[in-house]
């Protein structure tokens, strides 16, 4: 399922343009599963599945599988509808150098919501 | 498309605030009971434009919304380049009273959202006699920071980051047009202004310990909060409501910016409150 992020992002020219300054590697943890998302100029070049014993990444974003599942609902319930809402509930963890994430916050919010079932963005 | 004029009038008001000369932009529409509207942190008075275009409201209320100093079309005071903007409860309370007095408003209804929803609690505590009613939208006693606020005041993240931080505070069910208009206002905020407002919201303006001093028999307080707000949550508002002895209204499918993110839905919640306020008026 995670691998669908690549085709969905690369097919979204506006979103790729929004992330034009984003090049780097992000580690995404969905419960015990880990994925490396490799970005180049706003596009997703590759998604690699772990485990990664010593990941060298720009930042790591982690949440339990059920938290991501709730976040990806077509109309998520309050508290599961946004990365910052999950951060406020302390169920989402962000680690590493936050500059890439915060200076492209609209972009990353949209990228991680790409797996949300269709209801229109 | 035929060109149509809004009924809104905008003007500048020159007055002294905290001992310094200020030029404040305000807009108004309608006639009747003055309804003074207070915008959220890092935004401006445009958030209330739907209200000012709502004939059912402007037929009975004089709706006024001003841009706080440093926000919207209100300039910062002379010498601003030498200081870091920080909002405090005292400055905010005095600003609302000064604008109200300068516009000769007779015991207005004050309605504020977010930081505005917090300041109406301070107004209820300190100056209940100056208002005929207070309406708090997304009113909570306090909010703990849940992200590093320093990101809001950096030359390399400014503009988009303020809007991106609050984008999730809009309910996912809000109309896209209104959602993105609300976010646009955030993108236009001056550097450091959103962060400076949050100094009041997340630190200095904590009113929890003083809620017991609010007497709602002196001035009625109405509290309305959207269920998707994770900054001021429904639980935060319920805690305030229980403390001061009022019944809160929790708005379904609504986030942190009811008046601007979903005006059509918000009016359904607001109109009964305004009717109740009208009904408390002595017969003419």
Description of the molecule:
The complex is a heterodimer of chains A (121) and B (284). With 121 residues, chain A is α+β, with helices and mostly antiparallel strands. Chain A has a domain at 4-63 and 93-115: Nonspecific Lipid-transfer Protein, Chain A. Chain A is 31% helix and 26% strand. Chain B has 284 residues and is an alpha/beta fold. Chain B is built from ten helices and eight strands. In chain B, helix 5 packs across helix 6. Chain B is globular. At the A-B interface, helix 4 and helix 6 of A face helix 5 of B.
Percent helix of chain B, as a range, is 25-40%
CATH architecture of one domain in chain A: 2-Layer Sandwich
Strand order of the largest sheet of chain B: 1-2-4-3-5-6-7-8
Alpha-carbon distance between the termini of chain B? 43 Å
Number of domains of chain B: 1
What general form of chain A does the structure show? globular
Low-confidence stretches of chain A: none
Helix-strand makeup class of chain A: alpha+beta
**Roughly what is the average pLDDT of chain A, rounded to an integer?**
95
Number of strands of chain A: 5
CATH superfamily heading of chain B: Alpha/Beta hydrolase fold, catalytic domain
Number of helices of chain A: 6
Largest sheet of chain B: 8 strands, mixed
CATH class placement of one domain in chain A: Alpha Beta
SSE map:
The complex is a heterodimer of chains A (121) and B (284).
Chain A: H1 4-10, H2 13-18, E1 24-30, E2 33-40, E3 43-49, E4 59-63, H3 65-71, H4 83-88, E5 92-96, H5 99-102, H6 105-112
Parallel strand pairs in A: 1-4
Antiparallel strand pairs in A: 1-2, 2-3, 4-5
Chain B: E1 9-17, E2 20-29, E3 33-38, H1 49-52, H2 55-58, E4 61-66, H3 89-102, E5 109-113, H4 115-126, E6 133-137, H5 160-166, H6 176-187, H7 193-204, E7 221-226, H8 234-244, E8 249-251, H9 258-261, H10 263-279
Parallel strand pairs in B: 3-4, 3-5, 5-6, 6-7, 7-8
Antiparallel strand pairs in B: 1-2, 2-4
Helix pairs in contact in B: 5-6
